[in-house]
Amino acid sequence: MEAFLKNKPNTKKRTLFHLQKKKDRKEKIISLTAYDALTAAWLSECDIDFLLVGDSLGNVVAGYESTLPVTMDQMAYHTEIVVRGAVNVPVVADMPFLSYEINPEEAVRNAGRLVKQSGAAGVKIEGGMNIIPAVKKILNAHIPVLGHTGLKPQTVLQLGGYKVQGKTPDAAEIIKEEAKALQDAGVFAVVLECIPGELAREITEELEIPTIGIGAGKECDGQILVTHDLLGWFDKPKKFVKQYSNFRDTAVTSVKTFIEEVNLGEFPNQEHTF
Ligand code: KIV
Fold first, then answer.
1. How far apart are CA 30 and CA 226, in angstroms?
2. Pick from 209, 133, 128, 125: which is nearest to 166 by CA?
3. 2-243: CATH, from 3.40.309.10, 3.90.226.10, 3.40.50.2300, 3.20.20.60
4. How far is the CA of 271 from the centre of ligand 1 (A)?
5. HEC-encoded secondary structure of 34-97
6. Which residue's CA lies nearest to atom 3 of ligand 1?
7. Could you tell me the residue ranges of all domains in the chain?
8. Whose CA is nearest to atom 1 of ligand 1?
9. Is 45 a catalytic residue?
10. Ligand 1 pocket: which of 156, 214, 231 to mutate (most atoms <8 Å of CB)?
């Protein structure tokens, strides 16, 4: 959506293939979330490798307690508007809870919807061994898949909270096996969420495909964050997030100033009047 852009992105059109090249060249992969066209447009002006329409939109924009209520209709809509705003950057869409677990046929139908109707370049699925048949079926339909292991927010009910995963040797071994199984199934990269940095380093060394970390230390091949977290839209930052600005305070101060100026009769003034 060029109308949203201040500067034209100077990058040429990127594809998901380019991620493997970056790992091979030992260059870091950068990804951030987007849930709307305007954010996708300004992020396109930055050097982003791909945008993720995360099901984190459930927490961030819909106000749910978890990602579990997020529906296929919501993912399809948000993916469509992000694709409309993105310029030269591939968009990956999350598959929401229960859109791929029931059977591989339903998984491919839902993944296909995110590509065919919404324009995603690929889909992301949380899981390990349990999702391998679905991953293979989706790949059979020529849809690129991004894996996601470590902390899988869609399993929050079983976990009893969002906790760091892979802390014991057995738990670490399971995550390594899951990452390897996802690679063997054919995913183009794997997200490692909230695991010890040392485990993420070992997985990154063992895998040929890129690893993209969130709360997984600096040794991953790339990093992903929720854009709202990075910008400081929330009061309490998570441990693995660095707030690079404080948008929430800026927004609140701006709105308070607007209210004050309207009350004082200072806005709108001559300049803003036809
Ligand atoms: O839903 C999401 O935003 C994610 C992360 C990896 C950022 O899955």
1. 12
2. 128
3. 3.20.20.60
4. 43
5. CCCHHHHHHHHCCCCCEEEECCCHHHHCCCCCCCCCCCHHHHHHHHHHHHHHCCCCCEEEECCC
6. 54
7. 2-243, 247-274
8. 54
9. no
10. 214
* Amino acid sitting at position 233: W
Q: 6-58, pLDDT tens digit by residue?
A: 666 656 889 999 999 999 999 999 999 999 999 999 999 999 999 999 999 99
Q: Whose CA is nearest to atom 4 of ligand 1?
A: 54
Rounded Cα–Cα distance for residues 269 and 40 (Å): 33
Say which residues have a Cβ less than 8 Å from residue 113's Cβ, sequence separation at least 6.
72, 76
d(C-alpha 24, C-alpha 4), whole Å: 34
Q: Which 3 state secondary structure label does DSSP give 7?
A: coil
Q: pLDDT, tens digit, for every residue of 213-229?
A: 999 999 999 999 999 99
For residue 152, the model assigns a pLDDT of: 98
For the record, the structure tokens of 212 come out as 């993209």
Cα separation, 160 vs 145, in Å, equals: 27
Q: Counting atoms of ligand 1 from 1, which one is nearest the CA of 33?
A: 3
- 148 CA to middle of ligand 1, Å? 9
Q: Answer yes or no: pTM beyond 0.70.
A: yes
